[in-house]
Amino acid sequence: MKKMLNTCTAMALALSVMTPGIASAEMMTEVGPGEGQVNIVAWAGYIERGETDKGFDWVTKFEEASGCKVNVKTANTSDEMVALMNEGGFDLVTASGDASLRLIAGKRVQPVNTDLIPSWSTVDDRLKNAPWHTVDGVHYGTPYMWGPNVLMYNTEAFKDSPPTSWNVVFEEMNLPDGKSNKGRVQAYDGPIHIADAAQYLMSHKPELGIKSPYELNEDQYKAALDLLRVQRTLVGRYWHDAFIQIDDFKNEGVVASGSWPFQVNLLKGDNVPVASVIPEEGATGWADTTMMHADAANPNCSYMWMEHSLASNLQSDLSVWFGANPSVPAACTDGRGMQTAEGCTANGLDDFEKINFWTTPVSKCASQGECVPYYRWVSDYIGVIGGR
Known about the structure:
By secondary structure, the protein is an alpha/beta fold. It has helices at about 1-20, 60-65, 80-85, 95-105, 125-130, 155-160, 165-170, 195-205, 220-230, 240-250, 260-270, 300-310, 310-320, 340-345, 375-385; strands at about 35-45, 70-75, 90-95, 135, 140, 140-150, 150-155, 185-190, 235-240, 255-260, 275, 285-290, 325, 355. It has two domains: about 1-145 and about 285-355, D-Maltodextrin-Binding Protein, domain 2, CATH 3.40.190.10; about 150-285 and about 360-385, D-Maltodextrin-Binding Protein, domain 2, CATH 3.40.190.
């Protein structure tokens, strides 16, 4: 994780050099009356009003107390989030590290005045100055939630031999149920999945010398693409919609895939025989930040939401709902929500240092002189999915 922080810091410094005067909006100095609404781009399952499950609702009371109606646009990938923020019309976004620094460099988000967010002091110290939302000491958002990308699997297909390696989605093999994994596994439909291949190669081809799955030279990058081309022959469907993946595990015979704890929890709640694991090679992951658009039409409601998002009862319930870790540690123990200390431990609260958090690959990288930049990841991954 320290290497990952160094990677993000290097990128943040590069962005600050390449983009003088990064912010296009001045930092707010006070919060006024709400404008009546706030428009948020968010990951599926991140902002619940009791429509999926009546027990999980952290929107209704906020709307009643603030007078700010919460409108949510669900995005399925970081690239989609960046595109939506570039289009405009939104106030906030729950951006992962592979989107946040792009938004900062592109002047799509504005600095956040943490003095206007009373609950800032309760944020996990490991996240307060995280380099995926902090550039030159300036904060561009409030931490929301973090967690690993897990390997989800069907327990009936794996019987008494649960997977211990990501090889079940990267290499053709017969599974414990006696059937091939070909056509029964999935992979994430986003260029950042190249990092998952690189993470696997860090363990299985150490001679490549990969230090970070987001910092790949030409040879390392080619090896990752070659592995993904093998995976292409196994994948029944590339997923980006969490609910479609849920249906695929229920009804389409999918038995293994990289996934989020959110899907695992919902499937278990429906008594589908699934479980999840962080395999021996480790995992990539996400640390998401609520960021405010540079041209937000509803800045006061936006600040009210950012403060609300750090309430320990919201963080606690979201942690249970999504199977992730709160950015406010007290949410695990203060009893204001559903989460418990044991639940946070089960979600991986103590595994922060083991996760390679998503970040945007850049050409000038910390671990070696030249790395393959993200625009290449985008075009080449489209090629891999297309069979090239």
